[in-house]
Amino acid sequence: MIIKIKNSHYQVNIDSQGSQMIKIINKDYHFNYLWDGLEWPKHAPILFPAIGRSNNDSYMLNGKKYLMPQHGFAADQEFSIISHTEDRAILELQSNQETKSQYPFNFRLQVIFNLLSSGLSISFIVKNLNQDDMPFSLGSHPAFKVPIANQGRFDNYYVDFVGNKEPLKVYEIIKKPYTYRTGKLESINTEGLHTIKLNHQIFKSGLRIILNHDINEVIVHSLKNKHSISLMVSDFDNVCLWTKEDSNLPFLCIEPFNGLPDIYGNTVDWYKKRR
What's a Gene Ontology MF term here (predicted)? Predict the structure, then answer.
């Protein structure tokens, strides 16, 4: 089911499957911020309870192996609509027989969308309904049209990491053939201390996962466009930038998340996973 929330400036369309935003419409200037192309047929999936790919598409819990798809299963699950008003919606996923076959925990995941005059607030609440600790990762994977409102080119845009006090570091990525971390950090070319100039070559080897050193805001902007995109990310340990490799497609994913893809190697016990 598609539900809509709106105010005088914005409208957001949300699919109850995956609690995924499919449109963020600027009503004043009549454009959609979110990617809607067929070449990558997603918009803003929620990542839970895994981030990225697990070795052998599986993980361990106390010696028992479980299968886990890339980015977890939340994006493929139907969420219940708990509350829906003109400018606010709450959607919820509860553990069920299907989720327990991959993740043997009782949980409740709520996503709260709240439209403000200045933009959109999204909150996540994860409730552990077990007596034992419940390891999980959580993130968001929104894909934004860049250029914004079809103004300029992809390589006219910059990404600012506001609040960053150290040179940006990214996790080294390898493909075996899928994307994994090596466990090492490496530098990324920046303009100044906290600005990346976009071009598709940056993503030739895949995603760029940036370690959050006091980054509180990520801004995508261009000198050729008065419109910009800003995400507040201080609650997340990492921020990932991605666009489809070798494609030159006009979109950029900005993914705040807590948790990381596996380091390439053996299947990992989530109670012992290294960050």
Answer: isomerase activity
